[in-house]
Amino acid sequence: MNSYFVQATVADIPHIWSILQGAIARRKADGSQQWQDGYPNPEVLQRDIKSGVGYILKIGDEIAGYTAILINDEPAYAGIEGAWLTNDDFVVFHRVAVAQEFLGQGIAKKLLTYIEAYARSKGIRSLKADTNFDNAAMLATFEKMGYQYCGEVWFRGNPRRAYEKVLATIP
């Protein structure tokens, strides 16, 4: 099946919200504290889409995953307890979520691969992200995809593990 990585539209919101609700429930079932405080929520999702930072991964006609991608836009990253690998422009991504029916098919890895292509298309070599200490699935994905642990950042009063991947020279 063909996959496509495209900007999300307002029409996609109900399906994306369903995917996020499933991810929130899975985090809870896994015993994770991540996403158990009312975030993300429909307002965050609507803001992503209206700001043009929400992206979906489609497999055929189905939405398989969602993420928000921003450039140089994460104020919490300035206060890292540790050190980033680079101090240049960076792409940051948040709210990575995979639809229930696509679990176990490498969709998170595919999303991160598309995010790398997005960064390259903008001439940016640095990808930065964070996740909760107890989000085993995302921690494993970062490791598999070559991200390096850089330290801790704080969101809504909680520490998060911060990662960076520096891409090879952009052609």
UniProtKB/TrEMBL annotation:
Gene3D superfamilies reported in the protein's UniProt record: 3.40.630.30
CDD domains: NAT_SF
UniProt domain N-acetyltransferase: residue ranges: 3-170
Domain of life: Bacteria
UniProtKB keywords: Acyltransferase, Transferase
GO molecular function terms listed in the Swiss-Prot or TrEMBL record: acyltransferase activity, transferring groups other than amino-acyl groups
Transmembrane segments: none
One Pfam assignment: Acetyltransf_1
Protein name: GNAT family N-acetyltransferase
Species in which this protein is naturally found: Panacibacter microcysteis
